[in-house]
Every structure is written in structure tokens, then in C-alpha cells.
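Risk register update: the risk of archive-format incompatibility is retired. Evidence:
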Amino acid sequence: MGSGAETKRAEKPQLTLLLAAPRGFCAGVDRAIRIVELALQKYGSPVYVRHEIVHNRVVVERLEQLGARFIEDLDEAPAGARVIFSAHGVPKSVPAEAQRRQLFYLDATCPLVSKVHVEAERHFRAGHEIVLIGHAGHPEIEGTIGQLPDGAIALVENAADAETFQPRDPGNLAYITQTTLSVDDTSEIVSILRRRFPLIAGPHKDDICYATTNRQGAIKAISPRADLVLVIGAPNSSNSRRLVEVAIRAGAKDAALIQRASEIDWSLLDGVEILGLSAGASAPEMLVEDVIESLRARYDLRIEEISVTREDVTFNVPRVLAS
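Archived output:
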């Protein structure tokens, strides 16, 4: 007769977990968080951070415990304060305002977002009308549009916008994109723009960042086999929300976004035999581990990691913090 533990384990339903890789933190997110941590070590608390440093409440709450104070407007920081700009990038008016108020600031903008800003400036200097593919209201979009004078950039959010967009000069166009979009959606929009405006100029290299592309590729690899895919990420995280959409399109029977293990709607797992799991680029691996432990408590779990590539990208922090 088996032990009580063996009997209890046998009573658990079986579940196969397809774990997507890569998942979770990207180099830009890791750099931004390190900038806040190093600034707190070097300068002490408080350090003010304009907007959530990355879109993840667990990350933000931990940094708050270390002494970071998150604000939405520079007016909330006292004169002479130390301020950090989030990974999403900021309009040019923000550092200008920081200088005017004599605030010491560090820029944690992801280098891949900064690359898009440079492209926008290059096209503007060349006299191009610029089309920005992205989602209205996202801080990355606000930061990119804010690099140039009002009216220099037109926002195109979807294929319908691309079909109806009317430029001032169809022969003098360029496009740039938000870094966290769906690769497939963006490809469709670019195809429409190129069909309508054959002379449109584009980036030398795709603006969608490597981490977004890789995480979507991993989701595509697991979704056809999955009864359900869970994506760990915040509701305001663009790249996390895109992963849910990609999962459904790639063949998952269902997909849902959760912020942490405690948010799992266990009724969604009724009848699920194969579960997919990934995490957006601003979600720490500890959240993945918590979900796996919650699954182990309820299921006889078999984990299969599906890896589509290995990532070795790193970005340096500002020199003032490295010394």
C-alpha cells in the first residue's frame, strides 16, 4: 500500500505545462530597473521616477519599498530632486522642464526606443512627413511624438487607419513604429502603406524590438498545442497584451492575461490538459515561478520548456551610475 503522499499525488489531475522561452524581462527593462536601484544606492532616498519605470506593479512596489517615489508630472518633484525617466521614453519637453527647474535627471529610456527617436529626427531633417505605427495614449507613443514639433508625426493605429490615411505629399513619406507591437499586425499595416505609397521610407532595421519579436515567436511555438495560454503581465503593458492576441491567432483555444498567481481564474483550467505559459517583457521571473508553484499545488505537473532562441543582449547604465 502506498504512502499518504503518493495517494494524494495520484488524486491530482495531470497537466502538461508548455513554458515559452524567451519570456519575461528584456534588456531594456533590466537596465531601467538597475538605473533606479543604483541611483537609490548612490544618492539615497527619495529618487523620483516619472511614470512607472516599467509596466509592472510588482516591480514598482518593490522599488517603492527601496525608496523610489513614482510621479506622473515633474511638478510633483521638489526643486533639486533627483528624477529618472521611465523606459518608455519622454517628449523633449520633459528634460527641458527638468533643466529649467534644476532637477538632476537620469534617462532610463530603452536604447531601442531611443533608436526610434533618432530615426524620427533623421526623417524630419530630410523633410519627410512621418507615419508612426502604434497605439494612442501609450507613453512610448507620447514620447516619440514629443521628439518633434506638433504635426510632424501622424499616428496610424491599425490597418483601417493605413487604408484611409491621407498624407500631404504621397511621395515624401517615412514610417516608424512603436517597439512593442504585434509583429504580424505591424507587417500588415506596413504592407498597406507600401502598396498605397510605394516610395515610403522605412527604418534600416525593424523598429519592433528583439524581445517583443522573440516572445511572440515563443508564444506561436506553444499555442497550437495549448488548450489555454496564460500570459503574465500588466493590463497597461502593450507587449504583454499583444502576447495574448498572438496566442489566439496562433491556435490556442483560449488565452488570458494575469498579473500574478493569485489572479488565476481556476475555472478557466477546467478541462485543460495542456497549458501554455509566458510572461511579458516587464514581468519578473519570480511571477512565473509563483504561477508554477500554484499549478503544482493543484496538478500533477509535467513541464516542457519550448525555446525558440537564446538572448544575450545587455545595455549599459549611464556612466554616472557605473562609477
